Amino acid sequence: MTSTEQSGGMRPTKQRRAVVEAMESFADFRSAQEIHELLGERGEPVGLATVYRTLQRLADAGEVDQLRTEDGEAIYRRCSETHHHHLVCRECGATVEVEGPAVERWTRSIAAEHGYGEVSHTLEIFGTCARCG
Amino acid sequence: MTSTEQSGGMRPTKQRRAVVEAMESFADFRSAQEIHELLGERGEPVGLATVYRTLQRLADAGEVDQLRTEDGEAIYRRCSETHHHHLVCRECGATVEVEGPAVERWTRSIAAEHGYGEVSHTLEIFGTCARCG
DNA sequence: TTTTTTGCAAAAGCTTTGCAAAAAT
DNA sequence: ATTTTTGCAAAGCTTTTGCAAAAAA
């Protein structure tokens, strides 16, 4: 199992490989448009619509994390192996991954308490990092 | 201090009052367009642009909570007094407010651990409520 | 050959902005 | 008289979609 492997019914096209490889070339969150631009600079241009379609499928397949910025733009990042949350610097965007087993447990019990099932959650922490603060 | 009071340099216009009052007529999150429509039905039509501008200012002033749906749409709700989180039904949108002092403490300590200051966070829990599940 | 994917351009949807008229100070 | 706010229509943006050509199975 290589890291560029894809799941399900996706045909391994040049474009899809390019997007997946691009996703592995950075560790923070990028917008679809930024990724599209990056691909162009790399000399592997992929149509913007294709970038959107590919990222959406990768997100559905759980192969990339998808977030929304405060102004509603979708941003994507390759997944790490375990479920975790993000500590993001408001100024420079520096991201730290944090795990929170306690939070996982808490959300599940709160949900159960109110009769909710199939629980998922999103938790993002914002702050000013040491360099920017 | 009445509940329709406004802060800072906002002039108390008919439209602004209408938006603030509309916000107090429901307890869940609504989009700007829904609020605009609601105002029309109430017989107090307010221009869509004005609704957007007003909601933005109220959000900046901390008088309403602003969230993003999964597809990037901004939704608004009047603030309750205390900081809390939301347990939202994926199917019908039913919302329960939950408090989590433990979470507050945890996020602050995680952030401090990484040298981040001025911490804020967002936590939303999604699930299927008893009626929909 | 049949099915999926691409790329382009057009459309969609939410949100913002320019500007002159109206309202508040 | 000044300054802010409104409403409309016109952009602006990100994202989605239709469709014919290209690629994969």
From TrEMBL, chains A, B:
Family classification: Belongs to the Fur family.
Subunit structure and binding partners: Homodimer.
Pfam family, one: FUR
Principal subcellular localization: cytoplasm
Lineage of producing organism: Bacteria, Bacillati, Actinomycetota, Actinomycetes, Propionibacteriales
Localization per record: Cytoplasm
InterPro entries: FUR, Fur_C, WH-like_DNA-bd_sf, WH_DNA-bd_sf
UniProt keyword list: Cytoplasm, DNA-binding, Metal-binding, Repressor, Transcription, Transcription regulation, Zinc
Name of the protein in its database record: Transcriptional repressor
Superkingdom of source: Bacteria
